[in-house]
Every structure is written in C-alpha cells, then in structure tokens.
Write a structure and sequence with these properties.
493 residues, 26% strand, alpha/beta, 6-stranded mixed β-sheet, globular, binds magnesium ion, 16 helices, Rossmann fold, binds adenosine-5'-triphosphate, 24 strands
Length: 493
C-alpha cells in the first residue's frame, strides 16, 4: 500500500474530560482509497478520536494534518470544508423529511425562503442511486429501515464531495445481509479514492473489509497494521484486550427442565402472525432472522408494549393475560430492549442509580445508597466497565452506556428473560461476560429467549434456534443441526 502522504494524520492527540484522559497520545493515518478500521474495547477512546478528527472535540494537544498541512478545526463545519464527513451512529436525519431533503439538509438554496426542490432532487437522486438506495425517495426517512437510513446519511456525505468519510459503528444495528450491502457501497467509494475510517466491534467484518487497522487501548494507539499483517481475529483481540479470549459458546451444564413459557398463536397486527413457541426452564432459545422479520415485534407484543392478541400465554403452567409492560414484569418476564437509546437512561444521574432504576435496594421505600453502589459496581465490573459508579451515566462511552441497560436487566429477578441484541455495540471481552451471565441465569432454571443478528452468537449460545421470516416462525433448528448456512437459508427464504 502507498507510502504516500496520508490524506489525514493525527499525531499524539490528547483529550481529557474531568477525571478521564480519553485520548492519551493517539496517532492515526488515513490514506486515499483505503478502508481503515479503528478498533478498541468500550471506552478505549474511539468515538472521542473520531469527534476530534471531525472538529466536534478540540484536542488538548497534538496535531491533526490534512494533506500534510496542520489544521485546527473549531467546529465540524471546518472539517466539512476540508472534505471530511462523518456518519454518526445516532443517525442525524430528520425523520419527518424524505431522503432527498435529508441529503441536501442545511445546504438547500433558499430563494426568498423558497427552496428549489428540483435542484435538490437533481443533486440527491444520483447520490442515492449510486449507493443502492432502493426505498422511495419521497418516503419520510423515519419510516425506512436503519440500513436505508444509513444510506441516506452516506449519500449526504457523498453529495458534499467528501474525500474522507468517518463512520462510528455503522454496522451496529445492521444484519449481516444489510452490512454486506453497506460494504459494497464502502468498497465502491474506496475504489473511487475516498478514504474511509470506521469503528466496529465485529471482527470478522473488519478482516473482510479493512485495508488497514488501528487499535486503541486506554486512549493510546497500540498498533497500526496493514490487513496483510493481521493474523486472524485472535491477533486483533490480543491487541485490543491484551490477552486471549475463549471462543463464543457455553454449553449448558444441565438438561432443560419443564416447559415454562408457552405462547400460543400470538399476533401483532401487520407484523407478527400466529407465532407459537415454548421455552423450557434452563433453555436458551435463539431467535434469528433479518431485520424486519418481526422478532422484536413478537417480544414487544408478548410484553404488551405493542397491541397484540394471542390464543393463550402460559407461564409456569398458569394462563396469563398481559396487556402492558407492567403486567409483563408482574408475570415474571424481563425484556431487554433492542433500542437502548430510549430505555430510560438518565444521562445526568449516576451509573449506580441508572443500573438499579427498576428496583432500587432499600426497605420501606428508603434507598440504601451503599447497597445500591455495591450492587451496581459488581455488575458493571463484571461487564468490564472501569468507571466509578458514582459518575454520571453521560460520561460513559457508548458501549459502556449499553452495559448499564444490560446490567439492569441481568439484575432483575425474573423467571423469563428476553434479550434483544444483548451484545450489540459491546466489545469482545465484555461480550463473553454477558454470555457467561446469560448461561448462569439458564443454569438457575430461567427460561431465556435471545434475539440476535450476530450469527456466531446465536450458534454459540442457543440450545435451539427459531428462525423468523415475515412475521412467522419458519424453522426450529436444534443446536446440533445449526450452521450459518442453514440459518441464513431459512431467514432469507
Ligand atoms: N463527555 C464526556 N465526559 C466525560 N468522560 C467522557 C466523555 N466522553 C467520553 N468520556 C470518557 O472517555 C473515554 C473514551 O470514551 P469513548 O466514547 O471515546 O470510547 P469508545 O472507544 O468510543 O467506546 P465504545 O466502544 O464504548 O463506544 C471513556 O472513559 C469515557 O467514559
Ligand atoms: Mg464509541
């Protein structure tokens, strides 16, 4: 690969937040026509680095060079002017507007307050088409899939003529199939000479896509490697974590007990059609399928968060009618939602308060703060977060914020657990810990449903796999018969 001048280079960047040195001498070089993967555990400093490159954070010290020339970005607009675009993980689209308007957002030519839609279409449609955007360009983007929304964000970057596109975990909410589509687009941009810097916790895809890899640990660059110098996933894991990790997959230690959760013909109008299933005590049932197959909708219907009707739901042999999430909790069902952004994290409150939110420890309504901190500290440490639990939740990295929500549900004492994408956005080390805790719950006799788009996770963790397609269960595959090919074939139909 070229030893030419990097399009963008960061040297020895330092960035401190009160009490935390988020970047502690980070370096990174991005070249034209290369896909550069940025790796590291939760809290390693990836997002902080990207924000510094995009002018959203001002580093305390260090240098950023564009085309070999030092720059000092005061704001993202300065970065955009130098041809740098960022696709945020929390998509920054306006949900009520259609794709065309989102692509040209903030750059429309307004004439006496009248915007030239014709010009907007002329600019946006080719960019969208080039990226394989297949939805209607006049549908409000809020109604599109995450994958299609991401393409709109990318189209916006492309339309600004960006030479460097920064992406923070673009595939975190995508299925394998959707990620593949995004990768095709990324490769196309790369072949046109665009530089791409992207963050991912999914190592197989990194090996597949990246030309160069930078690994951060505790705010420092520990390695910059060309793809050809990377010796498999375990090499990357060692660089990130500093030790070897076990493969995914925890065999159960006891045979499943009696059937505990029984769902008979549950439907969510328009989304889920007559889904029946049974989960035994001690069993982890995986639910695979594409995004939009109705897996989360099934769970939301079951707990009464979406309008649903069923012929019957029995828990521990007792018929139950669940009309709202409160009744679900009372019936002993804990649901870890997929959409963790809106799961009541109060970013201003402490980590401890957030973890113990559903049932704060104490007696007669008096909060036992010491116990609260103890309980929270234990589960967060188990999940690999090093931040003191008195700190505000908002001061955590994206992945560590997810751990709060996961920890909260792991702490609930329920009989049925539904985990929806439990390890999305969570680094490889903590992922193994979540798997261990899930298996532990099963071994205590809990009935567990795990919805996951991470196939190795589904294959490694599930005692049995249900595949959903278009709102129906289309296959029930035993652990012994399950392979990636079998699952994908059922999911795609
Ligand atoms: N606004 C902030 N205030 C205080 N500390 C912060 C703030 N933003 C980030 N940090 C801290 O800086 C460190 C790096 O966070 P960063 O978000 O860059 O991690 P990351 O590598 O992106 O992790 P993840 O994989 O979880 O997204 C963490 O210790 C985090 O708690
Ligand atoms: Mg991050």
């Amino acid at each position: 690969m070229s030893e030419a001048m990097p399009l963008l280079e960061a040297r020895d960047l330092v960035k401190t937040f009160p009490g935390v040195r988020a970047l502690d001498g980070v370096s990174l070089r991005a070249y034209r026509g290369e896909v550069h993967a940025l790796l590291g555990e939760n809290g390693a400093g990836k997002s902080t680095l990207l924000k510094a490159l995009f002018g959203a954070h001002r580093p305390d010290s260090g240098t950023i060079l564009v085309d070999g020339e030092p720059v000092a970005f005061a704001a993202p607009s300065d970065a955009i002017q130098r041809g740098i675009a960022m696709v945020h993980q929390e998509l920054s689209l306006v949900p009520q507007l259609d794709a065309v308007h989102n692509v040209v957002l903030g750059r429309e030519d307004a004439r006496a307050g009248v915007i030239s839609w014709r010009k907007a279409r002329k600019e946006a449609l080719p960019a969208l088409a080039k990226l394989g955007f297949t939805a209607s360009p006049s549908t409000p983007v809020g109604r599109l899939s995450v994958a299609q929304q991401q393409l709109v964000e990318l189209a916006r970057a492309v339309a600004t003529g960006a030479r460097l596109i920064i992406m923070d975990e673009p595939t975190a909410s995508l299925t394998t199939h959707e990620s593949d589509q995004l990768f095709a687009v990324i490769r196309q941009l790369r072949d046109q000479g665009v530089a791409i810097v992207y963050v991912s916790h999914r190592l197989p895809e990194v090996l597949d896509l990246a030309d160069r890899v930078t690994v951060l640990r505790d705010g420092s660059t520990v390695a910059e490697l060309e793809r050809s110098a990377v010796d498999g996933e375990s090499h990357l894991v060692r660089l990130m974590v500093g030790r070897e990790l076990d493969a995914i997959g925890l065999p159960r230690t006891r045979e499943p007990g009696e059937v505990y959760l029984e769902v008979d013909e549950l439907s969510v109008p328009g989304m889920v059609h007559d889904v029946s299933l049974a989960v035994r005590r001690g069993e982890i049932v995986g639910m695979a399928g594409m995004v939009g197959a109705g897996r989360s909708e099934f769970a939301l219907g079951l707990i009464g968060a979406l309008p649903s009707h069923a012929r019957g739901v029995r828990i521990g042999g007792r018929p139950r009618v669940i009309r709202n999430p409160g009744q679900a909790i009372a019936a002993g069902i804990a649901y870890l939602p997929e959409d963790r952004k809106h799961q009541g994290l109060d970013l201003k409150l402490s980590i401890a308060s957030n973890v113990t939110l559903p049932d704060p420890p104490g007696v007669l309504g008096l909060l036992d703060r010491r116990k609260q901190r103890e309980v929270a500290a234990r589960v967060m440490a188990d999940l690999g977060s090093k931040t003191a639990v008195r700190a505000a939740a908002g001061s955590l990295s994206g992945g560590n914020q997810q751990k709060i929500v996961v920890g909260r549900w792991l702490l609930r004492d329920s009989d049925v657990y539904i985990f929806d994408e439990p390890t999305r956005g969570i680094d490889v080390g903590a992922k193994g810990e979540i798997h261990r805790l899930m298996r532990g719950l099963a071994d205590q006799g809990k009935a567990i449903i795990m919805i996951s788009s991470d196939l190795p996770e589904v294959l490694g963790m599930s005692d049995r796999i249900l595949v959903m397609r278009r709102g129906c269960i289309v296959a029930d595959v035993s652990r012994a018969d399950a392979t990636e090919e079998v699952i994908v074939a059922h999911a795609a139909g």
